[in-house]
Design brief:
The complex is a heterodimer of chains A (484) and B (140). With 484 residues, chain A is α/β, with parallel strands linked by helices. Chain A has helices at residues 42-61, 64-80, 82-93, 97-114, 117-120, 162-167, 181-194, 208-216, 229-242, 264-276, 296-309, 328-343, 379-382, 398-406, 421-430, 469-472; strands at residues 5-6, 8-10, 13-15, 22-26, 33-38, 124-130, 133-141, 144-148, 171-175, 201-203, 220-226, 245-249, 254-258, 286-291, 347-350, 369-372, 389-392, 410-411, 413-417, 435-438, 454-455, 458-460, 474-482. In chain A, α3 (82-93) packs across α4, α3 packs antiparallel against α7 and α10 packs across α11 (296-309). Chain B has a single domain (6-139), classed as Ferritin (Up-down Bundle). Chain B has four helices and no strands. In chain B, α1 packs antiparallel against α2 and α1 (6-28) runs antiparallel to α3 (90-114). Chain B is elongated and about 45 Å long. Classes of the chains: A alpha/beta (484), B mainly alpha (140).
Chain lengths: 484, 140
Amino acid sequence: MSVPQMQNYINGEWVSSQSETIGDVWCPATGEKIAQVAYGTQADVDLAVKAAKEAFPEWRETPPLSRARYLFRIKDAFEENFEEIARTLTREQGKAIDESRGEVRRMIENVEHATGVTTMMTGYTLEDIATGIDCYAHRQPMGVFAAIVPYNFPAMVAWWFLPYAIVSGNTFIVKPSEQVPMTQTKIFEILDEVGLPEGVVNMVHGSRDVVNGLLDHPDIEGISFVGATPTAKYIYQRCGETGKRVQSLGGAKNIVAVMPDADLDAAMPSLITSFFGCSGQRCLSGSVLVPVGDVADELLEKFTAATKAMKVGDGLEESTGMGPVVSATHQAKVLGYIEKGLAEGADLIMDGRNFTVPECPNGFFVGPTIFDNVKSDMTIASEEIFGPVVSTIRAKNLDEVIDLINTRAYANAACIYTQNGAAVREFKYRVKPSMVGVNIGIAAPMSFFPFGGAGNSMFGDIKGHGQESMLFYTDAKVVIERWF
Amino acid sequence: MPLINFGSILTFAEEIETQNRDFYVTITQNSGCVECHDLFAQFVRDAQKNIKNVQRVRRENVTEMILEQIRDFTRDPFCESYEGADTMNAQQAMETALKLEDRAVRYYGEAAKKLKAMSEVSRALKMLAKKHIKYYNKLK
């Protein structure tokens, strides 16, 4: 059966790659092949950069308010096609349809936030820095930027960057994940209708060659990346070598602490969402559950019961709480971690191996999995699993929790459930991760706040979206002026 | 079938509005129900607006914070049949319309309670309940 072939979008046109390497795209719920994508080449990157570079001079001269008006049109177009984007996303990525809708909402929120360019992009000025001399700092766009984005949020992550880049006068290239190219293709089909000037936004599909092509290209000013830590580190280093700006967001191992005074019934829905939402495939997912003191048994009893009540299945079904993981390869990797947890001596109290969904016998499912009595030096307590696997480490007190958090190499997010203000103050003051949730299981900053971690979870200085995005996408030009 | 999350509650609301619209459209084309045509044509227009409103509420309010499970809420008490609308007489059409409107009032009232933590959604659902109370009273 023939399946759609994904194309690149360069200079306002759909273009086929000359690459002979073709990858398959799978529906994780059914295991069916649903599309194919050519893994682009340096030639594809060169074409996209050329288009973006040529579009830049005219685009940067377009008044910011006019550029923002394109974003208003993009927002309207996304709202009109909202459900179609969400369904495409679930089909190729597997997450539950409500999660896809949430992702599309977050994508649009970034477009909405970026329309505030006329206040976000202003510089500042001071008269009389010396007698008769004034000084101004302008924020100027720089040229061509690119984003390399992951498979877990096929719609949203590119849009953490693109709206801010283009509204501030730059031009842009997106490289979607080769595992989930259909959603961004759908989005670019919608963009094509909006009528942005040719070359302002471009998309090149592919894998390693496209990534390296972007990293090494002398006409690209900066790179935004979200993905696994080894790649994030590689991108950071390589951009350093080629003199590019870079914001490179990596993986996570997020700890969720539950204090003895936590309201367990109120906490339970968000705890379940934290650990099992998107099948654990997000950098803000809870991964290590830490009951503190004598709350452990009651917490695990309630948590396990709530987990059992969650429906696992095809994400396109409205009542599905958790979908499959993205691919057969990833399924095997997650299952491998469960075996490792067992081999290292953790107690498996809920087993997600051999999990089947009768309506989807060929889907890439891993059932919800819960380990108890995990030790902090075990692999499942240290490495990013990126699946629906909970590692429970029992702690005696808050100090132990904070020590545990601060000894992980990752430092993306940390959450605490409690009714005790002093404990919260201590927690948020001392933990290293940059995103902290208090009685919140997914500490996801919205578009108007910065997104990104510390430690091995982020390489670079300026985080994603928020007001800081204008710093990343502009150069501060200072003019010191005197008239005789 | 359980309504366990934000999306399933709003999608069922869309289904209810779509069913109402389809029913009223069929009646406006049924020559045995001429006396209902004007009123039901208005209901068709309103249902169309309601569908758009429900879709907007779903689009604009779905965030990670509300992907949390909802308990003790199912579709079953709100399932109503409107089969045979094309051969109904006016009285049957009115009786069926009353049932459909009553079901909508009950559903939106209950859904507003289930989603009360989301004030904007809850408010929108209560407004829809009020609209359907108005339709019900008109039918009466």
